[in-house]
Design a protein that fits this description.
Organism: Ferroacidibacillus organovorans
Mean pLDDT: 89
Number of helices: 8
Low-confidence stretches: none
InterPro entries: DNA_brk_join_enz (IPR011010), Integrase-like_cat_sf (IPR013762), Integrase_catalytic (IPR002104), Tyrosine_recombinase_XerCD (IPR050090)
GO cellular component, one term: cytoplasm
Distance between the termini: 42 Å
CATH architecture: Orthogonal Bundle
Subcellular location: Cytoplasm
Structural class: mainly alpha
Strand order of the largest sheet: 1-2-3
Keywords: DNA integration, DNA recombination
CATH topology: hpI Integrase, Chain A
Largest sheet: 3 strands, antiparallel
Helix content: 40-55%
Number of strands: 3
CATH class: Mainly Alpha
Number of domains: 1
Strand content: 5-15%
């Protein structure tokens, strides 16, 4: 499992935050730590097309983010920074960290921040979240884009069929 392959506080914080928020790598790269609303468990991101949206994170992401920020010991404004000479982490560095984690895991598929975005969409839909809510969380203009991201499990498909097919 991906979480089990994380070896640093930074890796844990990145994996949990990407999974919880469904953000694009560019969204997270631009975030400052002052943007985090700890009370509400959310952050405003500037997404694709320079559009602002509010995204949310749960307790696991909160715990790992707080551990990471407490562990850092620097004053850089960026939410995520490089480990040496702290400055804003680049998109390339985030992708490299995910490759490093993936190489340590037993997962057969390629893992990336974007894959966690797809995973969040699938999890939310499989738990019964309305498509329009998932669309909003991911910042998609069109529901068709969200549908491409998500694949319903066989169980959920069968339950939907049994619920809506009347004979």
């Amino acid at each position: 499992m991906l979480r089990d392959s994380c070896t640093s506080v930074l890796e844990h914080a990145l994996v949990e935050f990407f999974f919880a928020t469904g953000c694009r790598v560019g969204d997270i790269h631009k975030l400052d730590r002052s943007a985090i609303d700890w009370q509400r468990g959310c952050v405003n991101v500037i997404g694709k097309g320079n559009k602002e949206r509010e995204v949310y994170f749960g307790s696991k992401a909160r715990i790992w983010l707080q551990r990471y920020l407490n562990h850092r010991g620097d004053k850089d404004a960026a939410l995520f920074v490089t480990e040496r000479k702290p400055h804003r982490i680049s998109i390339h560095q985030i992708e490299y960290i995910f490759n490093r984690i993936a190489n340590r895991s037993d997962l057969q598929t390629k893992i990336s921040p974007h894959k966690l975005r797809h995973t969040l969409a699938t999890v939310l839909l499989n738990q019964g979240a309305p498509l329009v809510a998932v669309q909003s969380i991911l910042g998609h203009e069109k529901p068709e884009t969200t549908q491409l991201y998500a694949s319903l499990s066989g169980t959920v498909r069968q339950q939907a069929y049994q619920r809506y097919f009347v004979q």
